[in-house]
What we know:
Elements: E1 7-12, H1 18-26, E2 29-35, E3 41-47, H2 48-58, E4 64-70, E5 73-86, E6 93-100, E7 107-116, E8 126-130, E9 134-139, E10 148-151, E11 160-162, E12 173-174, E13 181-187, H3 190-200
Amino acid sequence: MAKDILKLTVNERTATGKGPNRRLRMQGIVPGVYYDQHGANIMVQVAEVPLRKVYEKVGGAQVFHLIIDRGGKAETLPALIWRLKHDPVRPVLTHVDFFGVDLDKDIKVNVNVTTVGTAKGLKLGGKLEMFRDHIEVICKPLDIPEHIEIDITEMDVNDHVYVEEIQLPEGVSAVFDENFAVLGVVPISDGEDEEDEEEAE
């Protein structure tokens, strides 16, 4: 079943520099740049509210259709939200970078790791330790998974899940040189027990 691809409309940005960009942000508009795989770039600007709405759904690892309005001529391009910059003080976005993709070519991207279930080792004096919160994968852009889910239900104390063991969707492969541990159930040290008791008090 094909994915429903979201759309986001942006406008080409002609004025650059701190002054014009500051004025855009005061109007609730975020300056940005669209980059393609060939090194070309287009200066763009986009309303912050729809940008946030799209980012909430696609994050930085899902393809959407970026519609670039260049003087009344619209061009639709498959893209990822590559990077978002936030104001360090106020809850506003200050810049966005889009990255254009070729739907027929493989791409490397980081996908977040999530867990399902409760490890039985937690009842036996262990705690869940996440060593990696994301995994780099390679696949076609439309095959990028929303997240990588790991069932931890049967994990005991000192059990680990390694990247080679993770079942990924068809057409998706993990990128790694060494078979690293993604997560594990590790024993709780005496020091941690004492800290937990102090917090409970």
